[in-house]
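Sequence design from tokenized structure. All designs in this work follow the same two-part layout: the structure record, then the generated sequence. An example of the structure record is given first.
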């Protein structure tokens, strides 16, 4: 398994199109990188909700037969990676419920830091939960709200929550999109032949040839109905805190998020990384695929040639049979293999987007040395990761993050690299236009923009000694 942060989730919605479910399927296919554990689609024909979901990849779940069971002119879909809750079918979204005002389904990208406390309160008053993910809390809060309209019930429910959410809600007749006031996760609005589409990333619009209109703003609620689009700003203004890791690793390079093209930002990060950590070498190679744009930018700035010295096997499934006889670095080698002709006898710079635990990077360095490299220099397109994320990324605990307990030189020795260099926080923000006070960098400096419960603080070990 790769030593990487795990993507959060991907959401997609369509209103006003006769092939809403088919388009949602294609949108989820384009967002597959954001979650590979399960996927679901809920559609509406104006009078009833229809649901199909399962564990696995989008293309494996949604056969023509299953899509045929999703009629209607609007639909929402969700790709799941479990940031909260176990990986099993009951946690696959969209979550569907019936309540006093009819039926609803929700698809949620993000993580609610106070969901556990609210769930305990709801259960104490008799609520019964069917899943273990934090998103079900939203459904219960909407159902129990005393507000008269569905819009006001959503506002009432979300006002009680802390954390991150890009949210799609579907009823029999309406599609609602909401983004948390901090704007942690991206959410885009588009149009297609008179229909409206909403997606986590703009790359999903490209596949179906939809036109990008704009991003849904932090704290904005958009209601799409037979009356067209209505926009509301029901939540108090908060500090904008876009997740900078969307630029570093999560989003697809062809997407535009937070107003910028992802590929352009990653190449710019590579150029800045070069200016801060230049070392003389013969060749630059990326750790594919996420390290490629960073490496291209580094190569462009340094004038050192770029090549693919590590080849990725794109057809590795989630499970494989490991031979009984030990093979060195097997877990990495089944996904990556060095090209001896490229690295043999060379001084090599290896560029990756991030280092989490360091175990995979260590094996990569050794593999490149064994392929004949004279020197191996590791460069990283993000600052040292010292803190876990509580806003929608599945990260290890702080003590598992190698940079939280080791100096850069100690990490270098562990990796057995000739040198190791990270981009600085200041350098990272410097290359992102208008980044001042606009991005969450908590995983690099422990500056968390939204407070969280005591048990999460203990995981961070930030408040040692306090009761």
């Amino acid at each position: 398994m790769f030593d990487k942060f795990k993507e959060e989730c991907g959401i997609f919605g369509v209103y006003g199109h006769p092939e809403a479910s088919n388009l949602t399927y294609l949108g989820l296919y384009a967002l597959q990188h954001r979650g590979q554990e399960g996927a679901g689609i809920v559609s509406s024909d104006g009078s009833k909700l229809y649901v199909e979901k399962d564990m696995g990849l989008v293309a494996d779940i949604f056969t023509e037969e299953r899509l045929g069971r999703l009629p209607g002119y609007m639909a929402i879909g969700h790709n799941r990676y479990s940031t909260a809750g176990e990986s099993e079918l009951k946690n696959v979204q969209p979550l569907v419920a019936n309540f006093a005002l009819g039926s609803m389904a929700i698809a949620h990208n993000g993580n609610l830091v106070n969901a556990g406390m609210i769930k305990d309160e709801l259960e104490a008053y008799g609520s019964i939960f069917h899943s273990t993910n934090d998103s079900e809390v939203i459904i219960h809060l909407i159902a129990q709200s005393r507000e008269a309209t569905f819009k006001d019930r959503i506002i009432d429910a979300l006002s009680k929550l802390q954390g991150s959410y890009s949210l799609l809600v579907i009823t029999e007749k309406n599609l609602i999109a909401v983004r948390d006031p901090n704007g942690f996760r991206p959410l885009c609005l588009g149009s297609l032949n008179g229909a409206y589409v909403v997606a986590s990333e703009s790359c999903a619009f490209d596949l179906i040839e939809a036109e990008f209109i704009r991003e849904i703003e932090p704290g904005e609620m958009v209601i799409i109905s037979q009356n067209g689009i209505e926009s509301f700003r029901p939540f108090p203004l908060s500090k904008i805190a876009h997740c900078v890791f969307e630029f570093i690793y999560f989003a697809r390079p062809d997407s535009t998020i937070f107003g910028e093209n992802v590929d352009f930002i990653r190449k710019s990060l590579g150029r800045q990384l070069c200016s801060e950590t230049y070392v003389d070498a013969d060749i630059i190679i990326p750790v594919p695929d996420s390290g490629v744009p960073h490496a291209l930018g580094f190569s462009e700035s340094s004038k050192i040639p770029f090549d693919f010295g590590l080849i990725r096997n794109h057809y590795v499934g989630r499970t494989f049979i490991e031979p009984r006889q030990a093979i060195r670095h097997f877990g990495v080698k089944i996904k990556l293999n060095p090209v001896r002709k490229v690295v043999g006898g060379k001084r090599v710079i290896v560029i990756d987007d991030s280092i989490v635990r360091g175990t995979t990077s260590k094996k990569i360095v050794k593999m490149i040395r064994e392929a004949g490299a004279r020197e191996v220099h590791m460069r990283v397109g993000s600052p040292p990761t010292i803190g876990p994320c509580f806003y929608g990324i599945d990260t290890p605990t702080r003590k598992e993050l190698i940079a939280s307990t080791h100096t850069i030189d100690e990490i270098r020795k562990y990796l057995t690299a000739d040198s190791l260099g990270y981009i600085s926080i200041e350098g990272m923000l410097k290359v992102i236009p208008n980044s001042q006070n606009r991005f969450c960098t908590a995983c690099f400096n422990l500056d968390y923009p939204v407070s969280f419960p005591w048990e999460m603080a203990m995981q961070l070990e930030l408040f040692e000694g306090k009761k």
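Residues 285 and 350 are 5 Å apart (CA to CA). We note this feature because it recurs in several other targets discussed in the main text.
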